[in-house]
Amino acid sequence: MPASSTKPSAEADLAFLRSIVEGGGKPSITLATCYLAGGLLYGFQCLFHIGQMFGVIRWPEMVNLAFVIGVTVAVCGFIAWAAIRDMRESGGGNHGPLATRTLNAAFSSAGMVNLAMIIIFGVGAWRDGDFALWLYYPAVVFGLQAAAWLVAWGLKKKLWMLATSAGGWLTAVALGLLVRQPDDYLYVCTAALFLLFALPGWIMLREARAKAA
User: What is the pLDDT of residues 70-82, one digit of tens each?
Assistant: First the structure.
């Protein structure tokens, strides 16, 4: 084979291998939207509860319940919209570099475990009549997210991912120790939702749009 034809082929192979190692490709719009919407909406819900704590917000009980349910419905709506958008753009397949697919799998696995934790802690708190048991659930969520972000950092080597992982670990420990101190628990949870969910979601969404452009 002539050297002129071998060189482009070798360069293409090297570019392909580098894309796998570096984790190129467009970040998941679904993942970014889940983090951004969840962090903002649940963060504002925590601010709402802080307002109740200080007596600034005094709504009827049914209105409070409707607000909380509405936040969850809105988050689920954003997730559904982003998932449908991703499937349409990808043609329903599992495309993209290996690192990107591995990253998505790590966060999907963490989400699957979260569903199990909802049942475990929710049923336990209801059965024992102790709401503090339920408060351990967000602590576990931040711990799982810390592990997922550590995987992300190992694949992408972006410092903000490592910082998010460390912040998630510290938040998990703090929330676990503050379940009997609801005021401080709420402050920590509010800050963590904005800094460790909404902010990473915004960063990923910005990167996805830049890749698309």
Answer: 998 888 887 777 7
Q: What pTM does this model have?
A: 0.76
Separation CA 139–CA 148 (nearest Å)? 15
Phi, psi at 157, each rounded to 5°: 60, 40
Residue in 24, 25, 28 with CA at minimum distance from that of residue 86: 28
- In angstroms, the Cα distances linking 21 to 97, 109, 129, 151, 192 are 9, 22, 50, 14, 31
